[in-house]
Amino acid sequence: MTKRSFLSIFLLLFAVAVASAQDDVRFRRGGGMMVFTGYPPMKDHPVNLYYYIPTQGNIRKMRVLISMHGAERSGRIQRGVWRNLAEEYGFIVLAPEFKHDNGYLENGYQFGWVSEDPKEFRLRPREKWTYRIIEAIFDFFKAQTGNVSETYDLFGHSAGGQFVHRYLLAMPEARVGRAVAANPGNYTWPDDRGLFTPAGEPADPPGWPYSVRDTPFASDDYLAPFFARDLIILIGTEDTEPLRDDIPANNPNRIQGRHRYERAWNFYNASREIARRKGLAFNWTILEVPGAGHGSAQMVYGQGSVRNWRIEDNERVYNLKDVTGRGAYSLLFER
Question: Torsions phi, psi of 79, nearest 5?
């Protein structure tokens, strides 16, 4: 063997060893967090990626859940909500965290940075949408761990529920199996006419992010796969905090309904009617969690009273005995 050949083999083995070490550091069993910059078009807007991998079982064959936080902007909270369920039942949780100081204000998170301005629709390049980061995270996880999942499940609560349903609208190619949008505060109405008050006054704004009016998403190329998704809108029966009295009549939130509970049903019924009118398949479901208000754990476990089991890694984890058949866990993993 020549000196050059020996050196080449040594460098190859060294690279493999370093890659393995990096893999081990990036994802380990149990809970962890890393800063994700693996989507080049958005590398200047990093995302904190919290995760939980069960301590036993074959990582390659485990299902993958991506869980989207609410307005509190905490991937740690989302990981805590799911971690005991993941450990007990053998699935992986990835919980990206979109922080305000990394550019992810309301337009950058809930609305996916699809438009330059949330009040005046100006389409951004597709590769610059926040939504594209989710697929990149899934590919990164699979590459680092050898996981063979072809799809991932998706959960989002509150602002995360907004993210989830708009993500499914804007990303027909996304490899989502089943999705749960829990207690969103508002929705994108799939009506190309926009939103109007009962008196016929247009909403302010009448289009994105509160309707598909004057956007590419008004096309059946987007609406058909959107309506065909296995999407569950999950709403707590007690999520009924009304809007403030000073909110004007043409505000999109007021037009969509008096509170989150009403807006959920209005959105579902309107979407079903639009799909029927267009002759498009409609595969969504809407379900209620009795006694639940505006709490992520309530929606995951399926009841209004959910008990903290203990504090682990500075996050709340919950009592497995509290799981009912009505929450996001059962809907995603037991149906």
Answer: -60, -40
- CA distance linking residue 280 with residue 268, whole number of Å: 15
Return the amino acid letter for 234.
Answer: L
More confident residue, 9 or 260: 260
pLDDT band with cut points at 50, 70 and 90 for residue 104:
very high
Residue 206's Cβ-side half-sphere holds a number of Cα atoms within 13 Å equal to 12
Kindly state the tokens that stand for 141: 């996880």
What burial letters (b/e) apply to 4-36, b meaning 16+ CB within 10 Å? eeeeeeeeeeeeeeeeeeeeeebbeeebbebeb
CATH of the domain at 75: 3.40.50.1820
What's the pLDDT score for residue 26? 83
Global pTM reads 0.91
Structural domain count of the chain: 1
d(CA 110, CA 27): 27
Asked if residue 17 is part of any domain, the answer here is no
Q: What is the 3-state secondary structure (H, E, C) of 60-129?
A: HHCEEEEEECCCCCCHHHHHHHHHHHHHHHCEEEEEEECCHHHCCCCCCCCCCCCEEECCEEEECCHHHC
- Domain ranges, residue 216: 29-333
pLDDT tens, residue by residue, 311-334:
988 899 999 999 999 999 999 999
pLDDT computed for residue 241 by the predictor = 96
**Residue 82 domain flag:** yes
